Structure prediction request, 67 residues.
Amino acid sequence: MVRLHEAAGARSRVRLRVLQDHAEVLEVDLLEAPVDEPTQSLVGAAEGVLDLRLRPFQILTLRIRRR
Prediction:
């Protein structure tokens, strides 16, 4: 699990690099259940690089599953 929090009150961009071999990256809620309407396009997850955009004060949780 990776949890990101935008604390400055402004829109932010984040580049997250996943170094370990992984099978899946999925956006989940605070209880770690899959979200019905993801806020992120997880394009690039297969290559291990995610470019994310956070809204002010957003908490984003990602589940990264190993192979």
User: Anything to note?
Assistant: The chain has no helices and five strands. The longest strand covers residues 59-66.
